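[RESIDUES AND BACKBONE]
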Amino acid sequence: MAGWNADTAAGPLGAGTVTLVEGSSFCISSPNGDINAEHPHGLFVQDARILSGWSLTVDDRPLEPLAAEIKEPYRALFVGRVTRSDGYADSTLLVERLREVGAGIQEQVTVRNYSPEPTECVIALSVEADFADLFEVKEARIQRRWDETRKADRDMLTIQAVWQDITKGMDVHVTGADITEDAVVYRVSLPARGYWSTVLTVLPSNEGAAAAFVHPDRDGLSPRDQRRREWVAKIPVLQMGNRSIERTLRRSYDDLGALRIEDPNHSDRVVVAAGAPWFMTLFGRDSLWASVMAMPVDPSLALGTLQTLADRQGTVVDQMTEEEPGKILHEVRLDVSSGLSLGGKSNYYGSIDATPLFLMVLGAVSRWGFAKETIAALLPHADRALEWILKYGDRDSDGFVEYERLNDQGLINQGWKDSWDGINFADGTLAEPPIALCEVQAYVYVAYLSRAWLAYDTGDTALGNELADRAAKLKKQFNEQFWMPERGYYAIALDGKKRQVDACASNMGHCLLQGLIDEDKAPQVAERLMSPEMFSGWGVRTLASDMGAYNPASYHNGSVWPHDNAIVAAGLLRYGFIAEAQQIATGILDAAEYSDGRLPELFCGFSREQLAVPVPYPTACSPQAWAATAPIQLVTSLMRYDPVVSAGGVWMDPVLPESYGQLHITNAPLGGSRVTIDIADSVPSVQGLPEGMTFHRGHRPWMSELVEQAAQRRAEARSQEVPKGQ
């Protein structure tokens, strides 16, 4: 199976797995700190596993895990004890492993002797490196065999490997050890109730990598700590009456900070990677959604994501990568994984929704006060994206955007539910392409509106009118062809024969958020989304439990996704369903309590009445970008907080549940300034607004309303113009 066409879920990582992440590097290990090659563990840098085995023994005995605590997303402390040979008495030797991930890993190993007698022991760390590509590890299909050479020096073990014309390497830096070609060995004398400690560093063999670890600043902070300190200084400081929700939001901020990666060609641009462990790279859909949901925390992430995607926008027709002129990519891969899949290309474009989402996010960014020239530089890319929607997205000119993969190695389904069985009829039958997803039409709708608003803003009334008309036509056509009155909800899609794919799925909640759904149909949609078949008690399921393909432990057919629920809740609020949105938000935020405040990519769809705790999905990514930003979106939606800097206003009309308590936010970014937000007893206030901005308590303006207002202003301005010659 080729890389791009891989099942989106990986094999089990093993019980108690610990994942650390920093930028595009991540490390997966067992709860005692060991990296085991029989699991998809490892230290991954730039999509390649440079360390596949890393096991610590004391006198040839493994460590029994006692605790594994993540201090920061990139640092964890593992505590274990040495198993005794007799298996009865308590061990007097405890081992601490403080691990930090960056350009590689740095690990401080401390062995403590709690015996009243001195003791001697042999501490060994075995080292394996297979340089496997991320896809190979994820799918347990190691294809390449590297020609490997090892060199043991006085203070370093070097492993070099060659495959075809590609060379990779890894160095283990140590002091005071006996180094063999397979392991690093320390012979230690421990005093009574004393300890011994050392530091090891594992780095890819590239110039400058070592310096990234070995030179802390004058405050003793590592580069990861410095980067985190800079991130914390620029994001809002939050205090909330409900300490549990406050902890979840703070965890979201931390994870979002760790998932930031720099554009290698533009160090000033920061984008959001999709998630650990398998998607630590730029994704079109995921990065766009995550960055727009994170706007109240750092709007520059959305701008950097747009700029980086714009640089990689499609220019040619390529059947293998599914690239097309104007199309926004699905994912970027950094290692040779692309050589195993699609003809050596690093960009894959098999996404039906990334292109309209690009326009949606550009519209959102334009509301947050970035310089006009910054937005103007992206308009040519927006217009190319529009051309793609009309020429390639809507291939049969029926008014809807649909997908069908261009080769048998591409993704079968190309919306956000991109597993092979993710789109099905009520009886469980799989939908056949070309497939027009309901939520994609909603994204196209808001794409038209976003570009129309930008057109009116620059005085291009003709383009604004054309796109506003397209949006209105699409809304009418959608409600005629996707609505199923006998069922009281919208089809998830139209299939290749233009039949309604009649499964009841969460996708229609995305249509609520974009305003595509007719007002008279919204109450039935809300009722269905909150029915026992859809709402598990923790959140809205991806597929109703009375559907033929329902499986609570599936990836897309009955599971609960936090980001999906954040979008659905925001959509319900748009149509005035406050209690329902509060119920979803509370369920999702309650679920976060069972995973130390960090929401996973998804969890199983079992009813809260059946199982009193949310059931983890075995291979869910964590941390994951749009799961990390879901709590931000949920709380922002309930604040009903929205700025339109270009219109000189910020709107807020909070409906936070009483159980959330009071909210106090400082250092919140807005229009180049920093504001303070307070909500007490549902009464909002904002201090420090930029000059010329006004605070409004009440209904926030949606993009459709902004377009209507802009068109009206242009029309009024034209009517007041004095004709030439008068």
